[in-house]
Amino acid sequence: MRIDIITVLPELLKSPFEASILKRAIEKGLVEVHLHNLRDFALGNYNQVDDYQFGGGAGMVLMIEPIDKCISELMKHRDYDEVIYMTPDGTTLNQGMSNHLSLKKNIIILCGHYKGVDQRVRDKFITKEISIGDYVLSGGELAAAVLCDSIIRLLPGVLNDETSALTDTFQDNLLAPPVYTRPSEYKGMKVPEVLLSGNFPKIEQWREEEALKRTEERRPDLLK
Ligand code: ADE
């Protein structure tokens, strides 16, 4: 998979890909992540990428021309399955969307900033608009990092058995059951007996029941 991220703040997006699982996925060649600084496609001597909005009002808007140049350049070299715009008024991200996107070959992610992008960018280039939740971030960069993490960990070969995504919360629309590790007793607090029993069908049954219980208590909406 290849992910191209267009941003005015590439430095904000470096470190998420330089540690742990995402770093290893890149090193193993399972994913390529390319950051593109929108200013490299800027206009005039002032490296302009944004301007005041027509009709007045506070806040700058990212201009269409640098974004058009950047996306057109990328599209010269390969076909893209999706051009995603990170925005608080997009569809709220969920596990199903990440599963779906993890099957794509090439995607572009455009990070909004300030008041967002010229609507014509959204009309002409964008195939999906994604929000990571009902709150407003300073820009789309951290949201893009969240989206990339949720996709990349699903790519075959990225996680090993111990970290398998199959038992994650939200797979099968259930929250994950409680987990415990050593010691089996700490200051009088005991690990549920069944987990120490070695009876694996029983353990599996306990986990399913606990997952259902937790989902009913915390997220009954997932069971509908
Ligand atoms: N940009 C600003 N806030 C955002 C959000 N909640 N999700 C995605 N992109 C954003």
From TrEMBL:
Gene Ontology MF term list: tRNA (guanine(37)-N1)-methyltransferase activity
Principal subcellular localisation of the protein: cytoplasm
SUPFAM superfamilies reported for this sequence: alpha/beta knot
Binding site for S-adenosyl-L-methionine: G112, I132, G133, D134, Y135, V136, L137
Lineage top rank: taxon: Bacteria
A matching Pfam family: tRNA_m1G_MT
GO biological process: methylation
EC number of the protein: 2.1.1.228
Record function comment: Specifically methylates guanosine-37 in various tRNAs.
Protein name from the UniProt record: tRNA (guanine-N(1)-)-methyltransferase
Species of the source: Croceitalea vernalis
Lineage, broadest ranks: Bacteria, Pseudomonadati, Bacteroidota, Flavobacteriia, Flavobacteriales
Gene assigned in the entry: trmD
